[in-house]
Design goal:
Layout lengths: L1 H21 L3 H14 L4 H13 L3 H14 L4 H16 L4 H17 L4 H20 L3 H15 L2
Helix pairs in contact: 1-2, 2-3, 3-4, 3-5, 4-5, 5-6, 5-7, 6-7, 7-8
């Protein structure tokens, strides 16, 4: 009987967290998901929901931690893959200096590998690579600029 009571409590907690999210109370939703994870750190639903919340807060390290934990258990978890792809793309978009573009381009490649069917993600990635190409060209890094242009064009063609 304890298992069904425990299951009922988790279901109630998830419903409460969803209600909190729908009403814009992300702090309450985070508290509920944190409590669930304190009891069951492998709870994929709580982890991906926490990842989505922390993504919107711009807390990328936490997004990566939550998604990585889920993907270690289930490498094909679709929501964890999408959220992590979005986090990678947002981190890549933060690159402002040409010295950071190569690492950011790798984050873009990682994002595309996680969500290869996401055309919106690919289009935004292509735009970021276009910005990198423009900046590299301005800085005289013509080979880098050409590489970013080609990669962006390939993504735009998807």
């Amino acid at each position: 009987m304890a298992t069904s009571a425990s299951q009922f409590a988790f279901e109630t907690d998830f419903k409460d967290a969803l209600t909190a999210l729908q009403s814009g109370d992300t702090a309450r939703a985070k508290r509920i998901y944190s409590a669930i994870l304190a009891q069951d750190g492998r709870n994929a639903s709580a982890r991906v929901n926490m990842a989505a919340i922390t993504l919107e807060e711009g807390r990328m390290v936490e997004v990566v931690e939550h998604c990585t934990a889920v993907l270690q258990e289930d490498p094909e978890h679709p929501i964890a893959r999408e959220v992590l792809a979005e986090a990678n793309l947002r981190m890549a978009n933060q690159a402002q200096r040409p010295a950071d573009f190569a690492q950011a381009a790798q984050a873009i490649d990682d994002a595309i590998a996680l969500a290869p069917e996401n055309r919106d993600l690919a289009a935004r990635a292509a735009a970021i690579l276009g910005r990198f190409a423009t900046e590299a060209e301005r800085g005289g890094a013509h080979k880098d600029a050409e590489r970013y242009k080609q990669r962006g064009a390939a993504l735009g063609a998807q």
